Write the structure tokens for this entry.
Amino acid sequence: MTQLNAKLIVSDFDGTLITSDQRILPEVREAITQYIADGGIFAVCTGRILASILPRVRELGLKGLVIACQGSVIADIETGEYIKHGGLSPVQTSEICAAIESTGQSVNAYSDEHFYTDIPKDNKYLKMYEEITGVTSQNVGERLSDYIARNGIKCQKVASLCMPRARKRLYKFLKERFDGKYDVTCSANVLVEVSPLNDTKGAAVRFLAQRYGINMSETVAMGDNLNDLSMIEAAGIGIAVGNAVRELKKKADYVAVTNDEGAVAQVIKLFGYRHD
């Protein structure tokens, strides 16, 4: 009988589970399928909203759980049933939007189904972002903070799409502005994201471990960017893929091969089972 070592494995999606050209390698899919068949719990964890990630993981033939919006939402991949559904209140969403607006940067607010934005619809970067995520935006035609407050819209997270240099300045500003109030992180090279303080990827790993009666020492989490740091630090074994940013590699217990080389399959083989 196969003996599991890590009973819960959580993997980031973009830059970790899928390749640079948005594919899932056959060996990765097979490793996940076998791990679940042997009794392990596998979860995909992403900053994407549920409407973006759920069709993608189903299309790729994955089973298990999906953690969306940096940990605000957890759902079953096959049924779409919510296991956890958190998020920001309209007042909180508006407050964060206003802070970003004060810097002159663009702002997006994400619900389960789509995102609201102040970026013009014909913006080429917005079009690229919509193509990658598979989710359409709704331009509100006014200050997003005012629109959210007036319509009482509850969102899962707020983000700003900006150039790398501006991203660093905005990240520093929001970190100082909302220290201890909201979680502020970065993903990719162009996104700064703000979400509820207790709705991080790390909190999601702890939530699932508690729900399924798994000791944190029996959990593995892996990723490639700064928004994965909380779960890398929370898990029993935190893993950075070979293409991860330097800061994540420094914090990780182990550095795997790159996403294009099948990092998830390697991690399942090394840490998903006991090697007696």
